[in-house]
Design a protein that fits this description.
This protein is an alpha/beta fold. The protein is built from 10 helices and 8 strands. The chain is 33% helix and 14% strand.
Length: 264
């Protein structure tokens, strides 16, 4: 497999709703609450297709938006970083009184979700990485990239406004209608989010973990290294015949597989 560049890796996705999202209409009380840590440049809106599908399986899907993105774009500043987004998610967990829930972390959301899981492990039933970064203590997202990709990213930020990274294009198998939808709402993200090292204060998590690897790689593959780690460490490992954002390009297949993972 080829390896994907930073710009093709860090982002792609997330779904509707704001920070304290309401349960999806039709969700059953007997289902599982599922919280999403979305990808870079995106927000809660990009998981729109998944709400009815997850509700049909009885699950409550919560898709908050990080500070500075989506409907919270007015809060963007150069100071917004990874810790800001971790606190966003912890705030949702606290105010929604979430317990025994499944945390899905997509792409950049793997940085956020990993930190969240280390802060409140007693609340999380399972951590599911969806084609996501899986950092160790002290690692930043940009630090997990090849040197050439790091240099290209920094040069692009410097050529822009100096503090935000522009979004990468959607995967090439994204339909024209979805490209139009996504392109209208994705936005630059404070670069500090990608430079901030994750702080894992309580050692390696004991939370059951799963890795869902997207097989359709069209450029350099950033996420293969984390898929291999999942196999080595004997996490629940799954693959999906989709590109980096299956919540957009293959929602039904993703919903079916997530239901299997949730119920393992």
């Amino acid at each position: 497999m080829k390896r994907r560049s930073f710009l093709a890796a860090a982002g792609a996705g997330t779904a509707v709703s704001g920070l304290a999202a309401a349960p999806a209409v039709g969700a059953q009380a007997t289902g599982t609450t599922v919280l999403v840590a979305h990808g870079a440049w995106s927000a809660g809106w990009v998981w729109r297709k998944m709400h009815p599908l997850m509700a049909a399986s009885g699950h409550r899907l919560i898709t908050p938006t990080y500070t500075g993105l989506g409907e919270r774009a007015h809060l963007a500043t150069p100071a917004v970083d990874l810790e800001t987004h971790v606190q966003d998610m912890l705030g949702v967990i606290q105010t929604e009184e979430l317990k025994d829930f499944v945390l899905i972390a997509h792409s950049y959301g793997g940085m956020v979700g990993t930190a969240v899981a280390y802060r409140v492990p007693e609340r999380i039933r399972k951590l599911v990485y969806l084609d996501a970064f899986v950092p160790r203590d002290g690692q930043s997202l940009i630090g997990l990239q090849p040197e050439s990709a790091q240099q290209a990213m920094r040069a692009a930020v410097k050529a822009g406004d100096g503090w935000r990274a522009a979004p990468n294009p959607p995967p090439p198998d994204t339909s024209p209608d979805d490209v139009k939808w996504i392109s209208a709402h994705r936005m630059p993200q404070p670069f500090k989010c990608f430079e901030t090292p994750v702080k894992l204060r309580n050692g390696d998590t004991k939370i059951p973990r799963a890795y869902l690897y997207c097989m359709r790689k069209t450029a350099a593959d950033t996420f293969g290294q984390f898929a291999e780690r999942a196999k080595r460490e004997k996490w629940s490992y799954h693959e999906i015949d989709a590109s980096h954002s299956p919540h957009v390009t293959a929602p039904q297949a993703l919903a079916t597989l997530l239901d299997t993972i949730i119920n393992e």
